[in-house]
């Protein structure tokens, strides 16, 4: 298991060929944006019958605007963007930001198909949790889709518990989202 030390603003965590970094440079942010686009495409590929719902949650125009704003939304010291590299190639990302005072929200966890099964998702989550704790947050929240059972299992193993919605959810999305939270 990938163990992340509680070190404030540590820039790189490494285990073998897996590296987790705070994404800062334009190239790292570009890699994260590409991974986010890959996640939306993964949703389209795996749930074609739900494309209209995916487009509601990840509206293509709003999604691209969001990707441009990632460095501001998740800026240090209240947020963080992490990129995972396996053998030097970007293979995963996760980020968090302040959702409410003392509460961080984890967003956009994604691991490419080539890197699944290498502990990348666990390492990314642990990096985000550790950094949020070091930044003074007391709990972390997240949402995920009802069809993303592997992600749900990962979150439960990491100590997240299901909870009610913590933001206003459009009626069309109520039946497909699950919400989680854990203490830090």
Automatic annotation (TrEMBL):
Domain of life: Bacteria
PANTHER family registered for this protein in UniProt: FAMILY N-ACETYLTRANSFERASE, PUTATIVE (AFU_ORTHOLOGUE AFUA_2G01380)-RELATED (PTHR43305:SF1)
Domain N-acetyltransferase: start-end pairs: 37-183
Source organism: Rhizobium brockwellii
Protein name: GNAT family N-acetyltransferase
């Amino acid at each position: 298991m990938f163990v992340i030390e509680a070190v404030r603003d540590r820039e790189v965590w490494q285990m073998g060929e897996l590296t987790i970094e705070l994404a800062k440079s334009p190239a790292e942010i570009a890699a994260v944006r590409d991974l986010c686009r890959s996640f939306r495409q993964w949703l389209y590929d795996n749930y074609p019958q739900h494309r209209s719902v995916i487009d509601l949650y990840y509206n293509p125009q709003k999604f691209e605007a969001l990707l441009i704003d990632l460095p501001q939304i998740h800026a240090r010291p209240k947020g963080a963007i992490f990129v995972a590299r396996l053998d030097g190639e970007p293979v995963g990302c996760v980020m968090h930001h302040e959702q409410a005072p003392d509460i961080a929200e984890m967003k956009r966890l994604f691991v490419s198909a080539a890197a699944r099964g290498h502990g990348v998702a666990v390492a990314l989550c642990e990096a985000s949790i550790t950094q949020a704790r070091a930044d003074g947050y007391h709990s972390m929240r997240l949402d995920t889709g009802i069809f993303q059972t592997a992600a749900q299992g990962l979150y439960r193993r990491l100590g997240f518990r299901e909870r009610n919605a913590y933001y206003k959810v459009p009626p069309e999305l109520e039946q497909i989202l699950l919400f989680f939270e854990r203490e830090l």
